[in-house]
Amino acid sequence: MSGGVDSAVAAARAVEAGHDVVGVHLALSRAGGTLRTGSRGCCTIEDAMDARRAADLLGIPFYVWDFSERFREDVIEDFVAEYRAGRTPNPCMRCNERIKFAALLERALELGFDAVCTGHYALLVDGPEGRELHRASDAAKDQSYVLGVLTAEQLAHTYFPLGTTPSKALVRAEAAERGLTVAQKPDSHDICFIPDGDTRGWLAEKVGTATGDIVDRAGAKVGTHEGAHAFTIGQRRGLSLGVPAADGKPRFVLEIRPVDNTVVVGPREALAVAEISGATYSWAGAAPTASAFACAVQIRAHADPVPAQALWDQDAATVVVTPVEPLDGVATGQTAVLYDGTRVIGQFTIDRTVSAVPVDA
Question: Region Interaction with tRNA: what ranges (predicted)?
């Protein structure tokens, strides 16, 4: 129970369904702030109190479990290490993969519980080959992308009571009817452990600054920067280029090279990616029966899925995906989630991209 409206209503529905429910709030930071700042914040005292009030209203036991050390190691330190390596990670994926449905689920099973119930918007379907993960009924709130890291074993011990709810407005209305004080509490957003939203400044403190070159695709220097970690693939603003493009058009960040602290920029069309691949992957349920299969690929939580062909090379332990139309602005470190209709097939961390536009084009 995070202290938000979704987990409170999920708990209420679980109780109403006749389950033996215990509320657990995860303390993920030992230096959490006392108060939230609007919709920003992580593990604040206010959030814990909101969760406790909801549990008290529902008449269920409530505990706070300290996972701050594991969160620091598995999520925050991973986030910093990925940026140091020039990649763009998704900390929500890591939290689901290593904390909520790993550390939390492991402890729950050890204590004799059957499942972890959360307020995520996604559907679980018992298919012919086991439990399947599907998109939620409310496309606007669907969170199947960030849950794509879950394995068959984890899905077997997971419960998403909100997956069939047509809209978030109905969840808030239900919370109000139940007397839950969090009915109108703002949704949290951005990176939870950077409550002020200044990711660039936060990374500068963790990674440090170091002057480097900004170059074009041919390797010619066109500017300088104070730290490659401050840039993301597809970024246009804040480049401060000293040499304008020959055609006068704006340039975008195409590549980040941490080894020599170089940022590569180029035209908008060079952001198009014709192929992605990764060696860190998992299947959300049964593994594909064929090495090559059609799918849809989604590379961001709120991006549209793109039809594609996937090749699972089990010998090389890699997944290669070729979209029907080029993907836009893909960064290594991002997660690619594969779908078959509404069903999540699996996911992989992107570690290689192939541009659709040759360097000399």
Answer: 141-143
